[in-house]
Design a protein that fits this description.
The chain has 281 residues and is an alpha/beta fold. The protein has ten helices and eleven strands. It folds into three domains: 82 residues, Arc Repressor Mutant, subunit A (Orthogonal Bundle), CATH 1.10.10.10; 92 residues, D-Maltodextrin-Binding Protein, domain 2; 91 residues, D-Maltodextrin-Binding Protein, domain 2, CATH 3.40.190.10. Belongs to the LysR transcriptional regulatory family.
Length: 281
């Protein structure tokens, strides 16, 4: 039998590529940079070929390195799925995540439905932004996640959509086409924020980010205080203290996707998806 490859070394190679270099991979794996380098060196010694080369932009894989990574990811995924199946026997827990937008109307239904279908399993939930939820599902920390999807190729299965509405404190809003619009939006990278700016500018309004907030509560509070206009997905009623602005351009709808962990029980994903779809269009 051939000498076995070390899966930890394969995981390190994947981290170097995914995080764009040895330093960032070391930080993500909570290892020293010398340990990361050692893992790559040991892989190269075991296989007798160069896998990674450094260039001005960071690191790049050789042809052999790319082949190893492609096949290695399958090995790592199989390993993780096997471990999770045994872990589930010791810790029968179902971990569900959702964006804050889905928490008030969608999350209660999906949790109650899953609890009814799996009465012997403990159900936990996490609230976060869509990119972080997708990453958590991929890492195996979540079994299912409800995310917002503006792009057609977003991860997960489309289970419905939510209307995007311009909301502000009563009486606040642009008086005429072309008037400037102060926006209240999420901080950092946010697809809905980018969509809001694009739609306003396309309709002739000058869009200005007046307030940035880290949470949905922060966005709603700032809009309710009259600090600006917010573009938000609305599943049920408009939040108290806000009203919809009809004189701004139609923003369309945002998809709601169900992202499932690889190797998850297909019945669990189907049960959750049906529960959400019953509440959406």
């Amino acid at each position: 039998m051939a000498e076995l490859l070390n899966l930890a070394h394969l995981a390190t190679l994947a981290a170097v590529v995914d995080h764009g270099g040895f330093t960032r991979a070391a930080r993500a794996l909570r290892l020293s940079q010398s340990t990361v380098s050692q893992h790559i060196n040991l892989l190269e010694q075991r296989l007798g070929t160069e896998l990674v080369v450094r260039d001005a932009r960071g690191v790049a894989l050789t042809e052999d390195g790319q082949q190893l990574l492609d096949d290695g990811r399958a090995l790592l995924a199989g390993h993780d799925a096997l471990v999770r199946r045994f872990d589930a026997r010791r810790n029968p827990q179902i971990a569900i995540g959702a964006t804050e937008h889905a928490a008030d109307s969608l999350l209660p239904r999906i949790i109650s439905t899953v609890r009814d279908a799996y009465p012997d399993r403990r159900v936990t939930f996490t609230l976060d932004r869509s990119p972080q939820l997708v990453e958590a599902v991929g890492a195996g920390r979540l079994d299912l996640a409800l995310t917002l999807a503006l792009a057609g190729d977003a991860p997960g299965e489309r289970v419905g959509s939510l209307a995007l509405r311009w909301l502000a404190a009563p009486g606040l809003g642009p008086a005429a086409p072309g008037d400037p619009v102060n926006l209240v939006a999420f901080d950092g990278s946010c697809g809905i924020r980018e969509l809001a700016v694009a739609r306003l500018r396309r309709s002739g309004h000058n869009a200005d980010i007046a307030v940035q907030a880290a949470t949905l509560d922060g966005v709603v509070t700032a809009a309710r205080a009259g600090l600006g206009v917010a573009l938000l997905p609305v599943s049920l009623a408009v939040p108290e203290g806000l009203s919809e602005l009809a004189d701004l351009p139609d923003a369309g709808r945002v998809g709601v996707n169900l992202v499932a962990r690889r190797g998850i029980d297909a019945r669990l994903a189907a049960t959750a998806g049906a529960a959400v779809a019953s509440l959406l269009d």
